[in-house]
Amino acid sequence: MDFNCGALREENVGGDAVLYGWCRYIRDHGGKLFIDLADRYGCTQLVFEGEVGRKAGDIGKEFVIRAEGKVRKREEDTFDKANPTGSIEIFVSAFEILGKSEVPPFELIEEKRKFLANDEMRLKHRYLDLRRQEMVRRVLFRDKLTKEIRSFFWENDFLELETPMLVKDTYETGSRTFLVPSRTMPGKFYSLPQSPQMYKQLCIIAGLDRYFQIARCFRDEDPREDRQPEFMQIDVEIAFKDEAYIEGLIEGMLVRIFRNVLGKEIEGKFAHMDYSYAMENYGSDKPDLRFENRIVDITEDAEKSDYNILRRVVEAKGRVKALCFNAGYGSGVQKMDKNYMLGMIAHAKALGLKGLTWLYVKGGEIASEPQSIADSLGNARSGILKKTGAGEGDIIVVCADTSERLLLEVMGKIRKAMGERIGVYAKEYAMLWVENFPLFDKDEVTGRLKPAHNPFSAPTAESVRFLDSEPEKVISRQYDLVINGVEAGGGSIRINDPETQRRVLEAIGMRKESIDRSFGFLIEALGYGAPPEGGIALGLDRLAAILYGEENIREFILFPKNKRFESPIDESPTPIDGKRLKDDYGISLG
């Protein structure tokens, strides 16, 4: 009888079994050969003796074999209690080698993880990396997560639809797109979608009022940590519903996921926060609320001090702000030392901040290294202590800059880094909706407006009057879902009026001909009875990583790219012969 490598238990003892799998771990005990046979279900110990054992001497690591024999109970002192099959073994009577293997370039056994290859080697041999039980667990976790998501939306009467992969290029907005040349129309190109945004809006205009899709998206952006050029989104769109309904829907989905995938219960109502409040108090539009540590303004106190760096910023009409962390500084359990804080100062300077220093509390008083910094604060010290609420052993980070936006953004990064370093959280998961984003963002170099999220988000009824005269005052009906300081998804109520859509595109500097060329088909569709609608997109890879406790989404993508967005497994992207480009696609490289 056929079994997988994780199925057999003591109740199977005495029976016959046939197993197929990969020879993961081989031990030769002189006349007796032990092989751990593995597949995605688990691992079972095989025992070879006598003539069968002599023939098995040809078996190597990661050979694929078929083995048959009797199931027997292992000696109790040899039980592998960490393995569900660890109390039994197969006494092999016959086997067949189905596939030979070269010696793997790195260990695939979990207890040998310290010998695991570097990331590039893992990605080059991803088909081997995916055999490791830890990677199998991640694949199964993502599979279970995806099934729960689909089941949730099916049960809520959503249609699972598919939007096109070869789409119109709208290069005026968003990140760069990947282009695909048309063979039948030389000189013309498709784009791969960064998001199915416009097409899911068309589905709603078509009357398909409850849409969802596990959508593949493509984004040609500069390589950054935890980014991939292709990724998966949970896309949702619904007609005749407002923000509260959509947020409640996603909360219900996550309650179900936590219960059925993680076996945990969470509150079904998440916290809400305005964008402006988040930036002012946490320096981020995705604050991690597992720890509090708010940013406080100490400009008035700094103005009273003799610390020249801070005074110069204040005199230039800048701001001075502070953060406090319970770091246990100077104690036997301190989380940060002087070298760490000096590294934080260097990091802040690299980000462009004009001033940063750090203080700590000792004997109820503010101290520093060197002490001259604390002394130069003079009478400001009592105000800083009061506003930060700092206690014994706490570290106070003081930052200053003439650009309040830069100041808050850098402090947000410092807050995140130091909060994670300390690692003391009031809760395991902190869910948050951030709302009332500005519709537009201004490029500090060009001064040009650009969409804060996308140009399809509807303005609030209260702020739409500013659209033509003072567009920076326009607030969008945008909402982002933040889990543990990571943006898990974002959405908005969409513009369903063609004139408003044109005005928004004009506000970001697009001319009529550009609007018609890139978005004419959507604006035309909005003129044929577009209902009020809204939606949201959540990164499936990112959600899996957050819930699993993994930092990089790459660990939940079967064949990801490296940090340069190259594919080590097949060495793409690769050059294309110029003659082929010219003959097949009408493209000349000059």
Walkthrough of the structure:
With 590 residues, the chain is α+β, with helices and mostly antiparallel strands. It folds into three domains: 98 residues, OB fold (Dihydrolipoamide Acetyltransferase, E2P), CATH 2.40.50; 266 residues, Bira Bifunctional Protein, Domain 2 (BirA Bifunctional Protein, domain 2), CATH 3.30.930.10; 134 residues, GAD-like domain (Gyrase A, domain 2, 2-Layer Sandwich), CATH 3.30.1360. Helix content is 30%, strand content 24%. A hairpin with a 2-residue loop joins strand 15 and strand 16. It is globular and about 90 Å long. 34% of the residues are buried.
Looking at the overall shape, the CATH architecture of the largest domain is 2-Layer Sandwich
CATH third-tier fold name of the largest domain: BirA Bifunctional Protein, domain 2
Q: What is the CATH class of the largest domain?
A: Alpha Beta
**Arrangement of strands in the largest sheet:** 7-10-11-23-22-21-18-12
Q: How many structural domains?
A: 3
What integer is the average pLDDT?
A: 93
Question: Main sheet?
Answer: 8 strands, mixed
Class of secondary structure makeup: alpha+beta
Name the shape in a single word.
Answer: globular
Helix content: 25-40%
Topology, element by element:
Layout lengths: L1 E2 L12 E13 L3 E8 L2 E8 H6 L8 E10 L14 E12 L19 H6 L1 H4 L3 H23 L3 E2 L18 E3 L7 E3 L5 H9 L4 E9 L11 E10 L3 H20 L8 E4 H8 L13 E2 L1 H5 L4 H8 L3 E7 L12 H13 L4 E8 L2 E3 L3 H7 L2 H9 L6 E7 L2 H19 L8 E5 L4 E3 L6 E3 L26 E6 L2 E8 L4 H10 L4 H15 L6 E7 H9 L29 H8 L5
Parallel strand pairs: 1-2, 4-6, 7-10, 12-18
Antiparallel strand pairs: 2-3, 2-5, 3-4, 5-6, 8-9, 10-11, 11-23, 13-14, 14-17, 15-16, 15-17, 18-21, 19-20, 21-22, 22-23
